[in-house]
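Here is one chain, start to finish.
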Amino acid sequence: MTELLTAAQMRAVEQAAIASGEVTGLELMERAGRGIAEAIFAEWPELAKAPHRAVVLCGPGNNGGDGFVVARLLAGWGWKVEVFLFGDPATLPPDARTNHDRWREMGEVRPLSALGNELGRSDLALDAFFGTGLARGLPRELDELVAHYDCRRRVAVDGPSGLCLDSGRELSPAFPADLTVTFHSRKIGHALGDGPRRCGKVVLADIGISRWSGTPAAGEPASPRVRLTMVSGSSLSKNIAGHKYGHGHALILSGGPGKGGAARLAARGALRIGAGLVTVGCPPAALQENAAQLNAVMLKPLKDADALDDALRDSRLNALCLGPGMGMGQREAALVSAALGAGRPTVLDADALSLLAGDENLFRALHPACVLTPHSGEFARLFPDIAERLAVPAKTGPALSKVDATREAAKRGGCTVLFKGPDTVIADPSGAASINSAHYDRSAPWLATAGSGDVLAGFIAGLLARGFPPMRAAETAAWLHVECALSFGPGLIAEDIPEELPKVFRALGL
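Its structure:
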């Protein structure tokens, strides 16, 4: 897992490094500037071959100080560099003021009002206005500049100004970037909401601070750090001496005749991801239809909740999945109640989530072994007050984020919540949270296809059957879901996702 930090956490890490004597603030600023210059030349090698023109836009804080360092380095490379400052040099923080003065020995610092059409004549523009430090919408002068921020190559320091890096939400229209260079660790806002759309490509520059050892830095907020999901082959390997029941038995509940496709997709996903056995439980009238389309997946008639109670006397049925194509009548509500009463690891998706949203008694029956998998509409039905706050336009930072919303939902439900989207967020009641980002080099827009979520629910159920804890099952399933889409490529339909898993597993060394 890769850590994603908030602005406050990053400040605490920097302050701890400075207080320990590991580094000075000036050294950090110099390293940041060098990291930006190196990232520029790595992204556009042609810029290192001859002098070019750059416009460096500096803000009133330490982000502006980074900009002054970059200006000096590019000028030393032979570039023609124009530097513009938003603010008063006399009020710059000490380290930023030092680098302002060092640049003044090489070139001029002009007020932003003198910018004119320099952007259009330049090969590169550097946004060093605010970065992680922004806590409100942009001042009017910068807000007007965003609409005319037109340059062939646009680089942001830490993050595009106007973007809250704690939430990925725009506090006002943000400066678009083709390349964003951030330091030490990526920030939460790079992976959420508007962040990927505004950041372009995100590059992490090493500024020589010791990595986090597990103990929060002095002054750091107490909430657990957020992780970016990653999966290793070793976490998915099976016991070579095991047998099918040793890898779990997942039960997927299906709807009636003509409505079994979603459950069959989930069942195929559960089987492919490694559950030893998978059974589809369906109304007796749907047995023939399902039997015509299933082979390795077994079938069991389940007329009602009493039949489910009877089936669950078999303790080897150790994971359940309810919702895909199941329906939303009284029978289905009774099935959800029976499943929750059994206390076994349970995935609740689609129709089951709608039933939960409409029945307080069902919601109160949730337990720590449950995983809820809502998309945004389902989340709003389950947690309307949280969704309403998340939908309010952000004006100040740190803005409420999808991570905050998912953590609150998980605490309220007392179980793991996987809030779907290109920026899928997974959280459990302890506050642990991770983001499965399908952005940048993991962008997989073809996952937006009918049945994709049913397969994801099946993946989670299969991993629960194998004994994965709920949080890890949800994280692993979400990551593999995207990997399957990336492996298959455009043209993907839901049926392809489970069938791509063997190729993904081989790539992981299984």
